[in-house]
Design brief:
- The structure holds 2 protein chains of 2 kinds.
- Chain A contains 12 helices and 20 strands.
- By secondary structure, chain A is an alpha/beta fold.
- Chain A has 2 domains: about 325 residues, ANL, N-terminal domain (Rossmann fold, 3-Layer(aba) Sandwich); about 90 residues, GMP Synthetase, Chain A, domain 3 (2-Layer Sandwich), CATH 3.30.300.
- Chain A has an 8-stranded mixed sheet, with helices on both faces. Chain A has a 4-stranded antiparallel sheet with strand order 10-11-12-14. A 4-stranded mixed sheet of chain A has the order 19-18-17-20.
- The longest helix of chain B is centred in the N-terminal third of the chain and has 13 residues.
- In chain B, strands 1, 2, 3, 4, 5, 6 and 7 form a 7-stranded antiparallel sheet that branches.
- The radius of gyration of chain B is 16 Å and the shape is globular.
- By secondary structure, chain B is an alpha+beta fold.
- Chain B is built from 5 helices and 7 strands.
- At the A-B interface, helix 12 and strand 19 of A face strand 1, strand 3 and strand 4 of B.
Chain lengths: ~450, ~150
């Protein structure tokens, strides 16, 4: 694969929109936001709201004026399912995707031909940013169909000029065969499946670093910790890039890491990003953690304004060392809805994961069970331990249990119960995995 | 080199549920491996099952193949008379020599005649050295086959 030095990237990208001066980028944003409001006014949902609240495109003078606009929520999308958000006539719409529905009912997202093309363009931009291009063989292990991770990424990869293998999700035997036959250099995969696949490769005695051709892994569709990324990089001997997206905003490639791998650039010529207090909705300054709010400003079929993503992150206050002017968000720490509160402490499963992945004796699978025992909340962490760690001593197992317990306690301020399990006890998943089971009846 | 007195003990890590021990014994039975002794040390939700078997190495391989987390450890097996005070004297000697017994269990071969005490100590060489000066018989693996 062609590798770029920072200087080369800067040189090549000097004229690209990725390196545009902030003032100019913001000018584009203001213009596109105005146009978005005009367009949105054609949709039944926004027409109604704009009329009620007296919103006009002329109200927008600078990007901060976006705060005058109301939020759009998942419930809005559901209640106006399927056509309430459409701003074009149906005969100009060429595709529909529905959300993966991690929580609740699905939402429908519509694309015009131009929307499909623009979304692909953003993915191509992301891929080039990681050094991918003609000559690469890209295996897309995301589900094809209603989920955007398959098709939307596929179109983008073709646009980036790589050879695309539309492998789809699951069917591990086939995935391995494809990777070997076509000498796959890049995969797009969920982190939990990447770890599962690593287990299977190990069982088969295939050394991924030696016997596969992989160089780059795009990890998406699930929040995960830095430790998990490092683990995947080590197992496969690759560079793993964090990929953020959601169907409501086209799907994958909304945010993507540059080669510095420290935060994900959001393409601000296509989206306006804000981070707000999840409770009050007040905008937070860059650097403060809160809920990510996104507005599409380059979409015609279905503009969405100030969408409450439910994803917890912060915007990097400083400019990225790669020179791109588009701001970055931190990897998603969790969701406002998979965060759980135990004994008054906010806990994100990703924080528990970070502790576990830092414990070498622990295998890759875990589960968090929250229970209520005589009105006390209890967090039970169920972990599988590696076979090779077991040396026959009960004492060592107890020590490990204690170690995990005190590590979690010192990092999360919650004392868990730790349950050690034989490898293979917990269900292994190939898609978005359900790590948290809340058994409390509140 | 196997020194006199050391025998191999199989340990299996398993969750605390009835079917698991049954499965372990089933696997061994299929392979015609004889269980001489079995003991369970329990954590909360999991336990360590310790076994003395007629063919420890094969048992290890077989259990591993069946997906168990299994380990082979060396322990000391002492044959002694099955009479009151026998065990006491032995442990007294170990204590005098500051050898801490991490784990021990016993089984009787012939009531009123012979018993076997299995002990697990950190410094196994030292343990054997001290016990071999005593009027007890240290078992070797071959003895286990022939019990």
């Amino acid at each position: 694969m062609k590798s770029f030095t920072k200087e080369q990237v800067l040189e090549e990208g000097k004229n690209s929109i990725e390196f545009l001066k902030r003032e100019e980028l913001e000018k584009i944003q203001v213009n596109r936001l105005k146009k978005t409001i005009e367009r949105a006014n054609n949709s039944p949902f926004y027409k109604n709201i704009f009329k009620k609240e007296g919103i006009h495109p002329e109200d927008i003078k600078c990007t901060d004026d976006i705060r005058k606009l109301p939020f759009t929520t998942r419930e809005d999308l559901r209640e106006n399912f399927p056509f309430g958000f459409i701003a074009l006539s149906l005969n100009k719409i060429v595709r529909v995707h529905t959300s993966t529905g991690t929580t609740g009912k699905p939402k429908a997202i519509f694309f015009s031909k131009k929307d499909v093309d623009e979304a692909a363009g953003l993915i191509a931009r992301c891929m080039r940013m990681t050094g991918a291009g003609p000559g690469d063989v890209f295996q897309n292990m995301m589900s094809y169909g209603l989920f955007t991770g398959g098709l939307v990424f596929h179109y983008g990869a073709e646009k980036a000029g790589v050879l695309v293998i539309p492998a789809g999700a699951g069917n591990t035997e086939k995935q391995i065969e494809l990777m070997r036959d076509f000498k796959t250099t890049i995969v797009h995969i969920t982190p939990s499946y990447a770890l599962y696949l690593a287990d299977i490769l190990e069982e088969k005695g295939i050394d991924p670093e030696e016997e596969l051709n992989l160089q780059v892994v795009y990890l998406g569709a699930e929040p995960y910790s830095q430790k998990t990324r490092e683990k995947i990089e080590k197992i496969y001997g690759v560079n793993a890039f964090n990929c953020y997206g959601l169907s409501e905003m086209n799907g994958p490639g909304v945010g993507f890491e540059c080669p510095l791998k420290d935060g994900l650039h959001i393409w601000e010529d296509n989206f306006i990003l804000e981070v707000v207090d999840p409770l009050t909705g007040e905008p937070l300054p860059d650097g403060r953690e809160g809920e990510l709010v996104l507005t599409t400003i380059n979409r015609e079929a279905m503009p969405i304004i100030r969408y409450r993503t439910g994803d917890i992150t912060f915007i990097y206050p400083q400019v990225c060392g790669c020179g791109r002017t588009h701001r970055k968000i931190s990897p998603i720490k969790g969701r406002t809805d998979d965060m759980f509160i135990i004994k008054g402490v906010n806990v994100f499963p990703s924080e528990v994961e970070r502790v576990l992945m830092d414990t070498p004796e622990v295998a890759r699978n875990y589960q968090i069970v929250i229970e209520r025992e005589r009105s006390l909340d209890i967090m039970r962490i169920r972990v599988e331990i590696k076979k090779r760690f077991f040396d026959g001593s009960l004492e060592h197992l107890k020590e490990l249990q204690e170690k995990i317990k005190s590590k979690v306690k010192s990092e999360l301020m919650v004392t868990p119960r730790v349950e050690l399990l034989e490898p293979g006890t917990l269900p292994r998943t190939t898609g978005k995995s359900k790590r948290v089971i809340d058994k409390r009846r509140l | 080199m196997t020194m006199e007195g050391k025998i191999q003990q199989i340990s299996v890590f398993a969750r605390n549920e009835p079917g698991r021990i049954k499965r372990i014994t089933e696997v061994l039975s299929c392979e015609k491996i004889n269980i001489r002794a079995i003991t369970i040390a329990s954590g909360d939700d999991y336990g360590v099952i310790k076994l003395l078997v007629s063919d420890p190495r094969r048992a290890y391989r077989v259990l591993k193949r069946e997906g168990f987390s299994v380990a082979l450890n060396k322990v000391i097996a002492v044959q002694m008379e099955d009479k009151p005070g026998g065990l006491y004297r032995l442990l007294e000697i170990l204590a005098e020599n500051e050898i801490n017994v991490e784990d021990a269990y016993g089984f009787v071969i012939k009531s009123g005649e012979t018993a076997v005490l299995v002990i697990n100590v950190k410094d196994i060489e030292k343990g054997i050295k001290i016990l071999s000066q005593q009027p007890v018989k240290l078992l070797v693996e071959k003895d286990l086959y022939e019990l």
